[in-house]
Amino acid sequence: MQLKMALAGNPNAGKTTLFNRLTGARQHVGNYPGITVDHKEGCLIHENYKITITDLPGTYSMTAYSAEELVARDHLVNERPDVVINIVDASNIERNLYLTCQLLELGVPVLIALNMMDVAKARGMEVKAKLLEELLMVPVVPIVARSGSGMEELLKGCIRVATTDARWEPRIISYGDDLDNAISSLVAIIEDNDFLSDIYPSRYTAIKYLENDDQLLAKGQTENKEIGSRLENFVTEVADHSKRTLDVYPEAIIADHRYGFIKSILRQGVVTHKFDTERLYTSDRIDKVLTNRLIGPVIMLAVLFSLYQFTFSWSEFPVALLESFFSWLGGVVDSLLPDGMMKSMLISGMIDGVGGVLGFVPLIMFMFFGIAILEDSGYLARVAYMMDRIFRIFGLHGSSVMPFIVSGGIAGGCAVPGIMATRTLRSPKERMATLLTVPFMNCGAKIPVLALLIGAFFNEHKAQYMFLFTLLAWVVALFAAKIFRSTVLKGDPTPFVMELPPYRFPTLRGLFIHTWERTYQYIKKAGTVILGISILLWALMTFPSLPMEKQQQFTKEKEAILASTTQQVRNEINAGQRDLSADAQSVHNQLALIDNHQTQANLRYSIAGRVGTAFESFTQLAGFDWRTNIALIGGFAAKEVIVSTLGTAYSMGEVDADESGSLGARLRNDDNWNRVVAISALIFIMFYAPCFVTIVCIAKESSWKWAFFSLTFNTIFAFVMATAVFQVGTFLNLG
Amino acid sequence: MAAINLRKMAKKQSGTIISVKVGGELGRRIREMGLVPGTEITIQGRAPLNDPVALRVLGGTLTLRNNEADYITVEVDDH
């Protein structure tokens, strides 16, 4: 037999731990369409019952303010699970029962899993489950999700509820005479008109109208405009009255009475404290140090720096391993296939593309593992607490600091894991602003470009310039966030009413499930798109190929050179020897020069080359010639590609991004380049469109609309800045 | 006994909430966390830059920004 269960509860009540405990690896994570709330489902078999469990997002309440709450409520009313397991933190029982009240009012068949009995006991609290069960008239099973104790009883209880008593029975909680009368009148209207009664119990609808629940009000308007408006008008009258006579909103009265109801139950001996409750808990002792005014920030910086080190240094080895595997694969294909389009596409399009997708996997895994430790232990909430005052100035949230650091706040990060790290932010507008500004940071791929240009033009002050540009990235990103929050993402700050959960040791199992979930989502969701764009970019920089006569011209030049040498030199070169004689070496160099000219001509003839050339007159405003333009187009694939594309555009052959000294020298001696152009180019490269992997991640974490916004806004913004720098610099003759 | 604004409370000071005068999302967020009239709170500390503030409420710890704490009036013992 099949059973549907849902798991509801407060954040930090141990919901995920219980879910992992019950379903193990048999879970599936997806996204609700259009929002970033995870949809987690798992299954298990118990006593011949095939049970599907949905892990609802953790919420403190069931109003319609956040995406999480909407998802939770919609699931309950639309899916109508056979039983809802309401996980309640016994050590924080009073607040946890607030959600329980709302579940009872909705009428879902509830079973309370009273979690963290061990923590409560350690705090000297005794929570009588049996008594609570009698008073609430709902089955209560004491459990410890972390150790797994009570699982058998829990499942038994769930099956009993689901099979024998799975009726929907709304509970009536009294809200005092005034509101109870108002509710009765509302219920009368609702029942007379059969209003929304297929979805919600009538009393529930009435309460939600009094609470001004946006989603329900909107639903009411579409169901029956006239009744909806009638109810709304009635509620306005009630609200005016209570505001006049008692100076409170009805929703405040409702909340007060819910807590009153909870207190009245707990006071009947459900909770007894064995010793002084004001005693310092271990967690508070830790907080005395970790959030200390002076030591706290220092420790935080150290922790964030370690997370950064852990993510980027420890993942170096697997990243290098992947890289060498893909270059080995490229080499194999290179030696197996004949030269031509097919080979070029396989190597430059497919293998580099797949390599590009998978190259980020170790980074993402390491970062999420690190963040999972911080999140599960409770430290991340402290970071938000300490940083909030600063980030709030820019319309962001204390939790924004993590994505900024990971993206390159310490130069050398990566925006892809940075964007994925914004998931820890639960305030939608602050999250979007963070998402859109982290690509401004100096990621690891921009560093070789910075190194090239700074090395070529400001060699004597390398370190200072590097530091200056890291600082500039922070300033620009934060001010851009401020601009976004006062324009496209305008709105009041999301309340910072946040819980500082007690410190806990993360469970290894939880950490691994966490890490794997998110990594897998990246591979699945971003992977295919990234591969597609990679092939597209390859095509842009390859097609159309040079016309036959041009190609033949290069071949002829090469033949001419070969013809003018001795037979011995020709033999040496044809044999592909390593150690060439002086004569042969000179010929070899001449041939290579022609090859480089050919690749350059090829690149210029391609679509990307034509676009770059076509825009030259325009980009000259910022001092960029067609060569730079092509390189910048290539930079959309990955910023470090700018170096190699510049190399090709300057007929330098293949330039290694990490060994670009000769290219630097070439740029220094080029008429089109000087210090002002270098600064202008640096600024453009730092702030223009993020690489497409980042764009895809932005799209997957928000929407394609925002991804497109990021692409165009950043490019225009960067161009305006670069132009300003170039024009002013040239005017002052600083070049 | 005296009624003061939550923002004015000192570290380690305790009191009982008398009123929460704010509606909308902020009001709801404050109330759902148990900050309703009658609840006892203790100021546990403040962030390094003096804002937000951390409170002990119903056996848990909550944080609030100072401008959010402004809506909450607390009854405290006179010293």
Automatic annotation (TrEMBL), chain A:
It is a multi-pass membrane protein. The chain crosses the membrane at residues 294-311, 349-374, 394-421, 433-458, 464-484, 526-546, 676-699, 706-729. GO terms for cellular component: plasma membrane. Keywords: Cell inner membrane, Cell membrane, GTP-binding, Ion transport, Iron, Iron transport, Magnesium, Membrane, Metal-binding, Nucleotide-binding, Transmembrane, Transmembrane helix, Transport. CDD domains: FeoB (cd01879). GTP binds at residues 9-16, 34-38, 55-58, 115-118. The keyword Protein biosynthesis does not apply. It holds the Pfam family Gate. GO terms for molecular function: ferrous iron transmembrane transporter activity; GTP binding; metal ion binding. Residues 2-164 form the FeoB-type G domain. Its main location: membrane. Gene3D superfamilies: 1.10.287.1770, P-loop containing nucleotide triphosphate hydrolases. Mg(2+) binds at residues 20, 23-24. It is found in: Cell inner membrane. It comes from the Bacteria. The keyword tRNA processing does not apply. Belongs to the TRAFAC class TrmE-Era-EngA-EngB-Septin-like GTPase superfamily. FeoB GTPase (TC 9.A.8) family. Probable transporter of a GTP-driven Fe(2+) uptake system. This is Ferrous iron transport protein B. It comes from Desulforhopalus singaporensis.
From TrEMBL, chain B:
The keyword Iron applies. One of its GO terms (molecular function) is transition metal ion binding. The keyword DNA damage does not apply. Residues 4-76 form the Ferrous iron transporter FeoA-like domain. InterPro entries: Fe-transptr_FeoA-like, FeoA, FeoA_core_dom, Transcriptional_repressor_C. Keywords: Iron. This is Ferrous iron transport protein A. It comes from Desulforhopalus singaporensis.
